[in-house]
Amino acid sequence: MKRITGFFLCIIIAVGLVTVPAHTSDYDGRYCRTALAELPKGDALCYAYDAMLTGFLALDGKIPLDVERGLTYDDVVTVAEALRSDCPEPFWQADGFSVSLKSDGRVSGITPNYVHTAAEAEAMTALMSREADEICALVHGTDEMQIALELHDALARRVTYNEGEDAHNAYGALVRGVAVCEGSARASQYLLRRFGVESAVVIGDSRGGAHAWNLVCIDGAWVNVDVTWDDAGDKLFHRYFAVNDAVINEDHTRDATAYALPACVGEEYPYFKEGYNRFGTFSVDTLAALMSENFVSGTAYAEFLVGDSDAFAVWLSGHSRDLMSALGMTGSVSYATSALEGEMHLTFGSHKHTAGTSDGKAATCTEDGYAGNYYCTSCGALFSDAACCFVIDDLAAWRATDGRVAASGHNWDGGTVVTEPTETEKGVMRFTCTECGAERDGEIPVKEKEPGPVEPTKTFIDVSETSWFKGAVDYVV
Fold first, then answer.
1. CA atoms within 13 A on the CB side of 60
2. Which of 224, 356, 400, 423 has the fewest CB atoms below 10 angstroms from its CB?
3. Is residue 262 packed enough to be buried (19+ CB in 10 Å), middle (13-18) or exposed (0-12)?
4. Do the Cβ atoms of 459 and 477 come closer than 8 Å?
5. Max Cα distance, the chain (Å)
6. Is the separation of the CB atoms in 44 and 10 below 8 Å?
7. Where are the beta strands (DSSP E) in 323-473?
8. Gap between the Cα atoms of 234 and 215, Å rounded
9. pLDDT tens digits, residue range 446-476?
10. Global pTM value
11. Within 13 Å, how many C-alpha atoms sit on residue 404's CB side?
């Protein structure tokens, strides 16, 4: 089951008035904000969207909202859902917020809960940006479909599916390399925006559990992309890349939203082309031509889509020798298949590779590592997977890219007070990394001054200075 985080909201009844700053929008192009604008209270909802996002990014302790906008509790929930779908950047705002209401039910503000401090958020954002820069630098595509494909593949290879710290946000996926579906979807959105490709995160259900994936606008048309289901550990699939709603709805269901999400009505499988790598019927010549494009070190490989994987398995068992001959292979040849919902990975080898393993290098808080690779104990060919399907041509390059394990970043403890603050001097809090023992110091704000005696602003001149009640009378004045 792919776990999804939820918003925690509580209600605070507020009295009195607050001063509310004006907000201007830098987020007009984001899909869900645009969708909010189409609702009956669109102006007020977009105002709240901008105010809340601005406050989240600044880690404001309180975010006032203009009561004259007439926002209700349900309106704020709708805006929060839109921000959750649109905005991977304020990943530190992942623990809900409380809502302050006037006695008539109008919202006057929210108080967010943050899981990281401002200093941590700043450092983590810089680190996440650096990791994103390195991924994006390896993208060579010039059109939006190719860019989306390369980012899909890079993210699937980079992320290990698991729960953990920041597993539900982009930082966990990009920096720690560990995330659940929600973290992978937010990382995908974060990377796509760097190329000007708009994306929204969809929350819903798939295969009996809560799940998240992406809607991506490619050349003006929306498509579904599910990096998590395409990542099968040592196998990279494309069964859920850029598919339309008819395909995704076979095993995905979107959660209902107050605003409209875009329909994806284009091709079923843009990645798979009929007669090239998508087959309704099977042909030795056609499949051999496809496999010959990936013929390295005595191994031929192909990725393709079939209508019926069971029927293909039966066909292959009767045509494997014909396919071997068409590929020019002689002697003892073995083959292996992997499948995901009709997508097949087929490998033919002139001999059966026997996998040996080479140790990887563990990443530290500050230094990258790399995964272990595999090699054939007979021919010495290098592979990235235990099934010996994916050949490594350049080991050093592979360790720096697909095999790279990103530095995890420091995991700071709650801190220990080194110097107590006074009313005039800031204190010092020392944080220690629980992984490597590194230390950093942070400031503790000065203490608020204790209120002193209130001096009278006026005195009674007709009360004797020696009277025992003179001070009390002056105090009342």
1. 16
2. 423
3. middle
4. yes
5. 121
6. no
7. 334-340, 343-349, 355-358, 369-370, 373-376, 382-383, 404-405, 416-419, 427-432, 439-444
8. 25
9. 887 766 665 555 555 565 666 665 565 555 5
10. 0.73
11. 19
